[in-house]
Amino acid sequence: MPRRNECGCRVNASRPLLFQPLALRGATLRNRIVISPMCQHAARDGQAQPWHLVHYGKFALGGAGLVVTESTAVAEHARIGTADLGIWSDDHVPGLSQICDFVRGEGALIGVQLAHAGRKAFSEPLWEGGRALTPQQLEADGLVWRRVGPSAVAAGPEWSTPDAMTEADIAAAIESFAAATRRARTAGFDVIELHFGHGYLVATFLSPLSNRRTDRWGGTRENRMRLAREIAAAVRAEWPEDRPLFARLSCVDGAEDSWGLDDSVVLARALADLGVDVIDCSSGGLSEETRRANVPRGLGFQVPFSKTVRREARVMTQAVGVIMSPEQAEAILADGAADLIAIGREALRTPYWPNEAARALGQAERFETWPLRHAVWLDRREALLRQLAQDDTSGTGT
Ligand SMILES: Cc1cc2nc3c(=O)[nH]c(=O)nc-3n(C[C@H](O)[C@H](O)[C@H](O)COP(=O)(O)O)c2cc1C
Question: What is the CATH number of domain 3-364?
Fold first, then answer.
């Protein structure tokens, strides 16, 4: 009788947990390693470029179970930066499709992070300073731009004040997620992740600091959660039943009297009831104020959020944030703190992190998890190195 874990998944006792496959609806991740969404600021008018194919493709070659794209804008004015990937037009589909085909061809699943930047639309890439672009700059560049939010409250002193959304604006935002889902299906993505964190549109509705509305979209927690729920329901209705849906939350804003972990547990449960399969547990990003008061950073600093959400809301979770070594990742899974491990910057440093982890945890003896075209050469060299070491110790290496 195969052993099953608390999620009902089969577990193979002889395998590290990090390399136990995970079946989600009709899709199976070959291991528990997810490449976290990371903005590349390399698209043109939302269109994927050769950069994206190489960038995401290398993570598939590196052995990840799931590769998730950067925030991919559901509307032209909803971009985090001018050069974000977009999915607001059918013209974006062929470029995204090419990435899907390559990544899946190398054994990983491919996910798209659907995002609406709300009042934090259009900032510079970090290497240019990361500042908010001013209305003058945006107009000079001829961009279609509009910063929107639940209320006319700016994200910080450097940000222009957003328009408080009307009922029609909210309906259009929900529809833009639904339309993006239809395109994601056509492009061939396996997974959608909804970006509900980091101070972007949905996060601003959740937090009472940014949401001052008195209608059905503001006030009580239930009302502030309404947009998240309506988007999740609209996306689930368009997304095939057999494909998994994730949602990334900022589990805490990091400010007093704001959105907190208890709220995230309630939202996670509500989203799970609407058909969200995994809650990706991040934090922060709402405003300058909360950035200053943010959760102290350190190795695995957001893992406790994932553990609480998983235990209290009884949902599958993904842990993220300064997870660097295979041993650390394995310990998080062994502690029951998460079902999936997201790797961000460490994968930028070492795109082959999953393959290296397989060797470090004893899952792979040689290079069998590497792409075949490379593995055969690496295996041969390993055999040679072993032989040389043996000759050396037996005194025949001269
Ligand atoms: C270059 C870069 C771009 C990022 N862009 C996104 C993004 O598009 N969407 C998102 O949810 N998080 C984004 N993040 C946050 C990462 O997904 C991740 O949560 C964070 O880097 C912490 O994980 P790490 O310590 O493994 O890097 C970005 C991080 C980096 C380093």
Answer: 3.20.20.70
Q: Break the chain into its structural domains and give their ranges.
A: 3-364, 372-398
Is 283 a pocket residue for ligand 1 (Cβ < 6 Å)?
A: no
pLDDT along the chain (398 residues), means of 10: 50 84 98 98 98 98 98 98 98 98 98 98 95 95 95 96 98 98 98 98 97 98 98 98 98 89 98 98 85 75 97 98 98 98 98 97 92 95 94 71
User: pTM score, two decimals?
Assistant: 0.95
Quick check: CB of 55 below 6 Å from ligand 1? Answer: no
> For a substitution probing ligand 1, which of 33, 34, 35, 39 has the most ligand atoms within 8 Å of its CB?
39
- Is 179 a pocket residue for ligand 1 (Cβ < 6 Å)? no
d(CA 283, CA 308): 14
Strand 3-4 to 85-86 pairing: unpaired
Three-state secondary structure call for residue 307 = helix
| CA distance linking residue 196 with residue 205, whole number of Å | 10
CB 56 within 8 A of CB 48: no
